[in-house]
Amino acid sequence: MKRRSCLPSETGSPQNSPPETKHSRWEEENSEDISEEEEEFFDAPDEPYCEEEDPPAKPHQCEAACVSVFTEPSPPVRVTITQVSSGSLSLCWDTPAGEVENYIVTCSSEEDSSWQELTTHTNSLTVSSLKPGVCYSLQVSTQLKNGRRSKPTVTSSCTKTHMESLLEDLGLEQHYKEKLSLTTVLQIDEKTINDESSK
């Protein structure tokens, strides 16, 4: 018995091959177009490339803070009573260090509830319109241009009575605290009387 071998003929049907997909067909059809686009992209002349940069940051600016510094004024020193009468008191003082706009002098008394405030640009002042025989408190303060005042320097003095003023005018103020007789005031003694009578 003869056996026949079945061999595929060359003209027969092709061997099983993987099926063609739509994707592979699209690649074949468009491969030439893609390659041409790539050539055009890479063959394009160089063009300047500008990269946008952020604007430079502004330097940090510190906000100015206003700080007021006040100078404490110095009070007057060595306030001295220079003259006393029955209706006025005169005083002077040493000028303190620093710039001084003016001086404020306050005169007050607990006896008659009086009060005065005077301003002067010099280092001396006379307080008038006072009552005789009354003790007054005098306060002297320094005032700057900004209106600030120093602590006051305090002194006190009493005005003279009418009798003291009269004796001062007569040159007999040293006898005010003594008992004065008419003979003492007129400086009359026995010898003076005898001399006058002999004439």
From TrEMBL:
It comes from the Eukaryota. Keywords: Repeat. Gene3D superfamilies: Immunoglobulins. InterPro entries: ECM_Regulatory_Proteins, FN3_dom, FN3_sf, Ig-like_fold. Residues 1-59 are annotated as: Disordered. Residues 29-54 have a biased composition (Acidic residues). Residues 75-164 form the Fibronectin type-III domain. The keyword Lipid biosynthesis does not apply. Pfam families: fn3. This is Interferon-induced very large GTPase 1-like. It comes from Scomber scombrus.
